[in-house]
Amino acid sequence: MFQHLQIAYGFICVASALIVSGVVLLLVIKWRNLRMARMKDEARKKQQDYVAYVIAHLDADEELKLPVGPLGKWDLAVLEEQLIELAERVKGKHRERLAELFERLGLPEKELARLTRSFGVNRLDAAYKLGAMGCSQAAPALLSVLKTERDEPGRFIIARAIARCARDTADLREMVAHMVALSPESPRLLAEILSESAVDPAPLMREWIEHSDWRLVLVAMAGMPSTADRELIGSLWKLIGADEKEVRINAAKLLLRTGDWVTPKQVESLIKHPDWEIRSLTAKSIGRWADDSYVPLLSRSIDDENWWVRYNAARSLAKLGDDGFRALCEIASQAKQKEIADLAMQNIQDALRDESAGSGQAGAAGAKTKHAMYHSYFNTQRAGHMTG
């Protein structure tokens, strides 16, 4: 009995000691964090005038001056943080001037040392800061670190830093080749990363659009500009017949982005493509272009075997003015399949509601024309029976 009490007493003492130690540790950590926050705030206030000077002279021609007097380790770290925040908000000449200032302050050298001797979060932090500084001499070290990074989010942080520090297209090519091998499902993110580089990625896009590796082709398509020349458009047409389905669909999306890149004959070939996704994209795009010359093509597509193609064809017809509305009325009144007739009628109802809700004389005239057309096909006294 006495022995059990001794054991219980010992357990209580140990538990109490652990609890007290934990509370003390938490208080110490809290005190340390508060002290660091106070020191950081004081350092920021001390550097406030200098940062304001840098911002005010980013457009000037003369070299930016260094801070007056020696900077302690803590002051330099806080100034680095403030200048990086500024670098993230500017581009072009302003970013170049900040890169020169970083160099004169010796910050890239400090972060390069951290990059090579640190691991985990500290190494990623160094990579991010080197990228924000646009330090070109860090590119080889960053490429080396990228190949040893196992964490996927970490790889993208390093890849972004490489893009910002790249010396030429060779650095970008090496980075992307490594990334697509490990993360082939992220072409859009890689294209976004490339867009942040001071090195023009356009030559790489032209190279990759013709590449045999479909992963690089997807990166090139994701980074393709909104305006493309005939050479790029010609390459996209070749990709419509690619072996990889994702490549075919993305090529169609780009070609159909604007009606200016395709001829009526090409549109007809796309709406007959073996991939239902491409047929559906084509039907949907025609409605966005608002080109009523495609009404006959859409009328035929409403008989497509795929529901999405039929749906988008009907929706687009409803957007093509009186000719499109007339085609829907013909389909609804003559279709042998109830499903197709119902789909056409649903879009007729939607079009009548939209016209009735339209404002001004043009809206009233459009509604009157469509109601008259509806009466002529379905011989009802009030279109409101269908739209109510």
Entry summary:
The chain has 388 residues and is mainly α.
Q: At CATH's second level, what is the architecture of the domain at 226-388? A: Alpha Horseshoe
CATH class call of the domain at 226-388: Mainly Alpha
Shape: elongated
Spans where pLDDT lies below 50 across 5 or more residues: 381-388
Strand content: under 5%
Would you tell me the overall average pLDDT? 85
Q: Roughly how many Å is the radius of gyration?
A: 32 Å
Q: What is the CATH T-level topology of the domain at 226-388?
A: Leucine-rich Repeat Variant
Largest sheet: none
Summarize the amount of helix as a percent range. over 70%
Number of helices: 21
Structural classification:
mainly alpha
| Strand segment count | 0
Task: Note the gap between the termini.
Answer: 87 Å
SSE succession: HHHHHHHHHHHHHHHHHHHHH
Q: Which labels suit this protein?
A:
single chain, 388 residues, mainly alpha, Leucine-rich Repeat Variant, 21 helices, elongated, disordered C terminus
Describe the protein's architecture and organization:
With about 400 residues, the protein is an all-alpha fold. It has a domain at about 225-388: Leucine-rich Repeat Variant. It is built from 21 helices and no strands. The chain has helices at about 1-55, 75-85, 90-105, 105-115, 120-135, 140-145, 150-165, 170-180, 185-195, 200-210, 215-220, 230-240, 245-255, 265-270, 275-290, 295-300, 305-320, 320-335, 340-355, 360-380, 385. Helix 1 packs across helix 2 (about 75-85) and helix 7 (about 150-165) packs antiparallel against helix 8 (about 170-180). The longest helix is centred in the first third of the chain and has 55 residues, at about 1-55. Residues about 380-388 have low confidence and may be disordered.
